[in-house]
User: Fold this.
Amino acid sequence: MADLSKYIEQLQEFDVNDIDFNRVGVWPLPAKILLCILTSIAIVSACYFLVVKDKQLSLQGEKNTEDRLRADFETKAHEASNLAQYRAQMVTMRESYDALISRLPEKTEVPGLIEDIDDKGVESRLEINSIDLRQEVTTDIHIELPISIKVSGGYHEFGAFVSGIAGMPRIVTLHDFIIDRSKDNSGLLHMELEAKTYRYKPEDR
Assistant:
């Protein structure tokens, strides 16, 4: 205990204004110990900020990369395990796509399609007033072919006509129905509608 008191007294007597780093050897022991402690702290701090901190940041970056690669690997492993199923789905989708494309008329088949519509009107015992092609409408995937149709007859005949067109092998959709009574009191009804068929748009080469 006496030695400790002695060191404290020496440290209190030590004047910081008389510090001379060229004469460290003659400093009192407590000052030397304090200098060693401060030097050690400075060295450890410098090592941390100059070396360890950058290494920690680099290590964290590598861990993040590892996590990302692990997630990518798990995703690809899952996809690989279901590859056969995906291929089967692709085949099914391709077959469905080809089946739909086959139902789209070529340009040269449009006159035949109009004849089929006319035949459906005759089969339904309707009077065909007109069947007119309209301007084609081009979209990103297909080409619409609007057809304006005007017929006369009764409600039941209209229903049979619409059902007949819906059952055609080619894709035809019906839009914008307008039904009016005849003005000559004959009891007939007049129906105007627009039929749309679709043509596959060839890919640009």
